[in-house]
TrEMBL record:
Any GO molecular function: metal ion binding
Protein's name in the database: Neutral metalloproteinase
Domain (Peptidase M4): residue spans on this chain: 41-146
Taxonomic classification: Bacteria, Pseudomonadati, Bacteroidota, Cytophagia, Cytophagales
Main location: secreted
Length: 330
């Protein structure tokens, strides 16, 4: 297991080195606790190469997309370092690259395995994708998930991959705002929707399905319970749809435990992400069981945390069961 874990790190680094040789960024590795950000302006081309417009330590540029990407990557780095002692995406100090002004009126942001790429939005549906800190955290968390668990981007494993990004993205925003879980809005992309859209965000973790209802955008399709699980071939098997179910489970666990989400529920989710029993094709049920194992390992059998995690999954229609030995695998 340790060999496999190392292997994925080396692969990530190799990819990075190749990219660097191709001229998309620096190769310097940096010491733990220090971040190295590079923001590239794609100048509305659909390319992830372009001019470096802000490097670590450079002053603000007055281009909001550049500065929001720079700040957002920094806060996300700080969150993972301060809370989990994770040194960047790969825990090996991988420099953080953000591409802004990708494409023309491009209505999305994505993680391509090495960089975070942000469109400007068309201002009809969406504003620029750097405007929401949780969306930046979401993209970076895809890198963390890829490095730790390699959850395939399809069906339930893909919905878990998406949910992980919402869970950590939302916690990054809560960390920045110093919010306890009862004070958080649990919305993803609240700043992102244009004024023309009837909605409050891209997704709601506390109440999936309620984020928007709009003539152009349609209605938020997320279920919040297994009874409403959507079987579809669209959206990679509903990865952005069924993620509502594990999203709500995390929200329930965090708010039932109380305090800052990252102190206990977030720690359980993070340790589950690093648990070697979380395989690339893991579905909701197995993931839920692993969160219970990790709650027990971290906080003890019969603890408030274990109970809150079990109750959270129950409430979204997933009954957890513990059959395997309780040792930690990493
Ligand atoms: Zn995503």
């Amino acid at each position: 297991m340790a060999t496999l874990a190392n292997d994925s790190t080396f692969r990530a680094l190799r990819n990075f080195t190749n990219a660097s040789l191709a001229g998309t960024g620096p190769v310097t590795m940096i010491s733990p606790g220090k971040k190295q950000r590079t923001i590239i302006d794609a100048k509305n081309m659909q390319s992830t190469e372009g001019k470096i417009v802000r490097f670590e330590g450079d002053p603000a540029t007055n281009d909001p997309a550049v500065d929001e990407a720079y700040d957002g990557l920094g806060i996300t780095y700080d969150f993972f370092w301060n809370i989990f002692e994770r040194h960047s995406i790969d825990d090996e100090g991988m420099p953080l690259q953000g591409i802004v002004h990708f494409g023309k009126e491009y209505n999305n942001a994505f993680w391509d395995g090495q960089k975070m790429t942000f469109g400007d939005g068309d201002d009809d549906l969406f504003k620029r994708f750097t405007i929401s800190l949780d969306v930046i955290g979401h993209e970076l968390a895809h890198g963390v998930t890829e490095d730790e668990a390699g959850l395939v981007y399809f069906n339930q494993a893909g919905a878990l991959n998406e949910s992980m990004s919402d869970v950590f993205g939302s916690m990054v925003k809560q960390f920045k705002l110093n919010q306890t879980s009862d004070k958080a809005d649990w919305l993803i992309g609240a700043e992102l929707l244009s004024e023309k859209i009837n909605g409050k965000a891209l997704r709601s973790m506390s109440d999936p399905g309620s984020a928007y209802d709009d003539p152009v955008l349609g209605k938020d399709p997320q279920p919040k319970h297994m009874n409403d699980f959507v079987n579809t071939f669209e959206d990679n098997g509903g990865v952005h749809i069924n993620s509502g179910i594990p999203n709500r489970a995390f929200y329930l666990a965090a708010t039932n435990i109380g305090g800052f989400a990252w102190e206990r529920a977030g720690k359980i989710w993070y340790e589950t992400l690093k648990d070697a029993r979380l395989r690339a094709n893991t579905g909701f049920k197995r993931f839920a069981n692993l969160t219970v194992y990790n709650a027990i390992r971290l906080f003890g059998q019969g603890s408030v945390e274990e109970q809150a995690v079990q109750n959270a999954w129950n409430e979204v229609g997933i009954t957890t069961s513990i059959k395997e030995p309780l040792q930690y695998a990493h």
